[in-house]
Design goal:
8 helices; mainly alpha; Arc Repressor Mutant, subunit A; Rna Polymerase Sigma Factor, Chain: A
């Protein structure tokens, strides 16, 4: 687990909820292959979507999915049921995706030397972000760390302290990435809207 992160502060409630019967988890913990298969089918899409949003590459997202599921099979005995199963599995997926980003960049995420003051509008995605396809295209054009912070903050509900812990950085790092990334998204989506309106 990254420095500054703990089991209690890195798994916020998710807007994506999958009801998983306790009996299914217990069967998987006993090693039943059919139970593992059912769990895989239920969580394949949300894990892949999360990995794709963090890595920005379908092939890498597929690798994250496979690595996450391998770790799920290996660690399912550690799941005690005191938190939602998706929150537990999602944490594995986030860690796998961020680890791949670090390997891809071959260096840790760098801290910003200057402090960025967040304005109220800096933490809100622009209205055009409601168009999922446009937002996905714009996110793909952002730096890895910035894209990851925006997705973890807006879509997954992590706090700046939690994101900083996951990335081995500070809350200020997360805040500055969010502010700059949101401004950049606004610029890109505004340009897209203007192009569409004149088409």
């Amino acid at each position: 687990m990254p420095p500054g992160a703990s089991k209690t502060d890195v798994s916020p409630p998710s807007s994506f909820a999958i009801d998983l019967p306790d009996t299914l988890v217990q069967r998987a913990q006993r090693g039943e292959a059919s139970a593992f298969e059912q769990i895989y089918r239920r969580f394949e899409r949300p894990v892949f979507t999360l990995a794709l949003r963090l890595t920005g590459q379908r092939e890498e997202a597929q690798d994250v999915l496979q690595d996450t599921m391998f770790k799920l099979f290996d660690r399912i005995g550690e799941f005690r049921g005191d938190s939602p199963f998706w929150g537990w599995l999602r944490q594995i997926a986030v860690n796998e995706a961020l680890m791949r980003l670090r390997r891809r960049n071959r260096q840790p995420f760098t801290e910003d030397s200057d402090e960025v003051e967040l304005e109220g509008h800096d933490v809100l995605l622009p209205p055009a972000a409601a168009d999922a396809a446009l937002l996905a295209q714009a996110l793909d054009r952002l730096p890895d760390a910035t894209r990851s912070v925006i997705w973890l903050y807006h879509a997954e509900g992590y706090t700046h302290e939690q994101i900083g812990g996951l990335m081995g950085k500070t809350a200020s790092f997360s805040k500055s990435q969010l502010a700059r990334g949101t401004r950049r998204l606004r610029e890109m989506l505004k340009i897209t809207q203007e192009v569409d309106s004149h088409a």
